[in-house]
Amino acid sequence: AQKITQTQPGMFxxxxxxxxxxxxxxxxxxxxxLFWYKQPSxxxxxxxxxxxxxxxxxxxxxxxxxxxxxxxxxxxxxxxASQLGDSAMYFCAMTPxxxxxxxxxxxxxxxxxxxx
Amino acid sequence: GAGVSQSxxxxxxxxxxxxxxxxxxxxxHTALYWYRQSxxxxxxxxxxxxxxxxxxxxxxxxxxxxAERTGGSVSTLTIQRTQQEDSAVYLCASSLGSLTGYNSPxxxxxxxxxxxx
Lengths: 116, 117
What we know:
The complex is a heterodimer of chains A (116) and B (117). Chain A is mainly β. Chain A has no helices and twelve strands. Chain A has strands at 3-5, 10-14, 19-21, 24-26, 32-39, 46-52, 60-61, 64-69, 74-79, 88-96, 105-106, 110-115. In chain A, strands 2, 5, 6, 10, 11 and 12 form a six-stranded mixed β-sheet that branches. A four-stranded antiparallel β-sheet of chain A has the order 3-9-8-7, with no helix packed on it. Chain B is mostly beta strands and 117 residues long. The radius of gyration of chain B is 14 Å and the shape is globular. In chain B, β4 (31-37) and β5 (43-50) form a beta hairpin. Chain B contains no helices and ten strands. In chain B, the strands form two sheets. In chain B, strands 2, 4, 5, 8, 9 and 10 form a six-stranded mixed β-sheet that branches. In chain B, strands 1-3-7-6 form a four-stranded antiparallel β-sheet, with no helix packed on it. Chain B is 0% helix and 45% strand. The A-B interface holds A 4, 33, 35, 37, 42-47, 50, 52, 91, 93, 95, 97-109 and B 31, 33, 40-43, 45, 48, 50, 56, 89, 91, 93, 98-102, 105-111, 113.
């Protein structure tokens, strides 16, 4: 079984500043994938970034980067140069990386508010 | 291209009534998922369809919940004899295959907000 913990129910960040959203996980699977999704007030879940447990480098996608520390079982999302449109709920999720794997386990999310 | 489409976007129903929620996945996506999101909570897995395989119904909370996927495309989630605790946003997602990963993330619809009065 997997478990995702997001300890920050809400975060505030000044526009143009960087912000880190925390995510820790627990799994007994040797290989797994980690995801971050953004959910604006419109409700749609938007895929942001993916990190495989055996990837040698931290994933980056534009202003998003994933600070992956395998030994600490953490997969924090870093958003650089925050924009007002970044205000949303952010969910960390994981899945085992094995054939037939399909279940994503989600954390409870962090609400990010970007202040002008 | 078109994303995952869900209807209705909002549904208000009286306790005890049955409701049907519809999901139209992205064309070509073989995997289809239903999740439930209660207020202020993360996503709770309900059911998963992959191609013609038997669905994984392990997340359905009770026998009042059922889902089907016709022709490997459109899916319907049915809740019978609705209860107030069924009030939530029901999210549908699809992906290219069963192994989620960078090349096959889940693509979500906007959800159906169900309110049981």
